[in-house]
Amino acid sequence: MRFVIPTDDGNVVADHFGRAMYFMKVEIKDGKEISRILVDNLHSRSHGNHGHHGHYEPGHHEHAHGYGHGRELGHEHEHRHGHEEVFASTGEIDAVVAVRIGPHMFEDLKERGVDIYLVKPRTSINEIVSKMLSGELKKLELRK
């Protein structure tokens, strides 16, 4: 499994997936960590902060259609373009681990078949990897 963790310092998870300075790319196989590489988030580097939007956070359950709220109006193209930079940064991945993910990114990840795991703010990358290896992190499942 290949997954990424957004980070600003290489040690703890960043508060927002798309705005993080870096992604820690981790690969695990047969219950062992194979690799861990820190890469630049091209979206963060080239566009900076786009302001506040709604987010998906641990323990914050929403509407009957699933986990989260409706799409925001406007800036759709800009957000989707930025997401291509994020995916160029992450490469081929199976999952992301984050504190929060905006609704547009959430939809893009689901469309690409990328699993989402949510953790609490300031969780260390070492703890995330350990919990992923042990199966303690649970994939976000949408309510039907």
The main pleated sheet reads as: 5 strands, mixed
Which structural class matches the secondary elements? alpha/beta
For the secondary structure, the number of strands is 5
Q: Roughly how many Å apart are the termini? A: 26 Å
Rg (C-alpha, Å) = 14 Å
Number of helices: 4
Q: Could you estimate the helical fraction of the residues in percent? A: 25-40%
Descriptive account of the structure:
The structure is a single chain. With 144 residues, this protein is an alpha/beta fold. Helix content is 28%, strand content 22%. It is built from four helices and five strands. The protein has helices at residues 42-47, 76-90, 103-111, 125-134; strands at residues 2-7, 22-29, 32-40, 95-98, 115-118. The protein has a five-stranded mixed sheet, with helices on both faces. The longest helix is centred in the middle third of the chain and has 15 residues, at 76-90. Residues 49-81 have low confidence and may be disordered.
Features:
144 residues, 22% strand, five-stranded mixed β-sheet, single chain, alpha/beta, 4 helices
Task: Briefly summarize what is shown.
The protein is built from four helices and five strands.
Describe the secondary-structure layout.
Layout: E1 2-7, E2 22-29, E3 32-40, H1 42-47, H2 76-90, E4 95-98, H3 103-111, E5 115-118, H4 125-134
